[in-house]
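Submission sheet (multi-component)
Chains listed below:
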Amino acid sequence: MVEDISNTELQELIYIIQHQYGYDFNDYAKASLKRRFVRFMSHAGVTTLVEFKVRLQTDPAFFRKMVEYITVNVTEMFRDPGFYKLLREEILPRLATYPIIKIWHAGCATGEEVYSMAILLQEAGLLERSRLYATDMNAANLEKANAGIVPMKWMKDYTHNYIQSGGRHDFSDYYTARYDSAIIHPSLRKNIIFFQHNLVTDQVFNEFQLICCRNVFIYFNRALQEKVVSLFYDSLATRGYLALGMKETLLFSKEKKKFEVVNGPYKIFRRKL
Amino acid sequence: MTPATGFDIIAIGGSAGSLPVMGKLIRAFPPEMKTPVILVLHRLKNVHSELNKLMSADRQIIEPEDKEQVKPGCIYLAPQNYHLLVEPDGTFSLDYSELVHYSRPAIDETFFSVAAAYGRRALGILLSGANSDGAAGLLRIVKNGGTGIAQDPEEAEFEIMPLAAIELSHKIDVMRTDDIATFIRSKYTNK
Ligand SMILES: C[S@@+](CC[C@H](N)C(=O)[O-])C[C@H]1O[C@@H](n2cnc3c(N)ncnc32)[C@H](O)[C@@H]1O
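Outcome: structure written.
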């Protein structure tokens, strides 16, 4: 079993992946990435680093599995209910003044965050004129997201989150239970589009009133966060909102002067000009 | 072979029964000690406020945000629901992936990252607890040239955690709380 990899070995892995598959992990946070590689090796039953390198180089399916594994895709509906409450009460009423509301979920994982947003918009009477762009670098995640199926076993927790976020409807109206799956109601899905976008290498593709990029920055080092903040700045309309995860912040970024803090604890920022 | 001028980082992990010991150690830190301290505690309710109560008013406990710089004179507490890692560039990173030893934060994860980033300049301390999280991490700190101390199992409210570490390596020192405090003070006050 490989317990640890050195910085040099980590660099080698990053190099192999970049040259063979074009994924750039150079500016991912090192300690965290290392931990993911080590855990994947034990998960995949790889016992030596040499074996790991060989398989990465010769087996594209193995590589895809590895990417899926290392880009943790843990997510929830209405994760951090207080955040959704703020969206409901303070942000959506402001967005309501736009004829078309464009929202980008960057790093949407398997879609739970996007469907939560669609529910909020629906309840605010805004879904019809909203366009939700949901992207991730991980194709397997997008496939699951696009299917609109959420494991039934989590629905109890999600219902609880929903109520805490200020939801007043019957949460089960938003999905159909089938065996162990909850199928999200198609009416919620019609203004969502899912596609692959890598925040490291891909560009601006539209202009948004709100960008949610939650729990993605924690993978990146400061330099990469900086770069992605610029990408978001360029993708936001003037006075557009940017929402990060609860432990993530813009405050270490040189770009912070271009944003104002709308809510400190919930990490909601707003593009100044 | 500990550095004569103290350490560059002190990481302390504990679970059941470790909170009072942590408080005691923190109160014993000499005022001139500027080494950053990282605390990792398992899921105990209100750890943060409990710890603040146990400490002197002049030291504040910070729950770091992602990529926050590790700063001298600060005491950090791993936030609930994230593993807390130190990067080689001296920033924290938070990790939201799977639980380790049924917990997040896990002591092992923090200790591994401390061992990799600080090598022989690291001091790791493992206190009372009812599972074996932290043992492998403490071993890694010692293997990478750092110093590892386990609380004397005889004194610890729960011996499983320090015992697990002690069984892994004879290079891990076994000390009672008072001796740990004296050891730390000796590293900072004899100049
Ligand atoms: C922990 S999930 C966050 C899901 C959701 N936003 C939430 O907060 O619950 C992180 C996601 O970021 C994606 N990700 C990681 N690096 C990325 C990159 N360079 N570009 C786009 N997505 C990325 C991963 O594939 C994963 O799905």
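Remark: Chain B has one domain: 9-186.
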